[in-house]
Amino acid sequence: MDLKITGKFIKEMRKEKKLTQTELAEKLNVSEKTISKWECGKGFPDTSLILPLCKELDISANELLSGKILSSEEYKQQAEYNLVKLKAERETNAKFMLTLEYVLGYMTSICFFVLIFVASFVTMTNWLRIVLIVFGLVQFAVGIHFCLLIEKDAGFYKCKHCGNKYIPSYNQILWSMHCGRTRYMKCPKCGKKSWNKKVLE
Fold it and tell me: What is the CB neighbour count within 10 angstroms for residue 165?
């Protein structure tokens, strides 16, 4: 998807409907600046706004993603292309987030152990020692919290029994036993507990 082509298409469709940026913004409950950003190719509507925008411009979501009005034949071809492209983008994003989780996890852990080591073995006043330990614990807790959020949302977990792919709750991620990217959790579909592997799609 080319943001500039999509932006130009939004602008053309808006003008065809004889709507100003302000009028379209009011209909979608967004700012005029947001519409301007879309039309300049500097942004794309949030997923919650795609269908309302398409309704106002009298186009399909597929046409919005393609940046043009599609014939019946083109519609089918473009739909398949857009699905494949969206899937690839989701996988790339999930891989990036999971890599970020590793980096964040290692950095948080190293920082925590360094602060605890310094507080334990370096000569300093007690209040400074307490500050270092508290700071180390807080940054460790915050870092692990963000790692768990990434773990929850990037990709899916696949049930060993029924093959169901699902996104677990934060509590499931927090309290489940794990070994790398595999967690012992209950599948929401079949209800069985097993070691479920993280998959991207």
Answer: 15
Q: What is the spatial distance between Cα 60 and Cα 48, in angstroms, rounded to a whole number?
A: 14
pLDDT tens digits, 71-128: 777 777 777 777 777 788 888 888 899 899 999 999 999 999 999 999 999 999 999 9
Q: Which residues, in sequence order, are bridge partners of residue 51?
A: none
* Residue 126 CA neighbour count, 13 Å, CB half: 0
Per the listing, tokens 């990709």 go with 155
Segments in the chain forming alpha helices (H)? 3-16, 21-28, 32-39, 47-57, 61-66, 72-121, 126-153, 170-175
Backbone angles phi, psi at 154, to 5 degrees: -85, 115
How far is C-alpha 5 from the geometric centre of its chain's CA atoms? 24
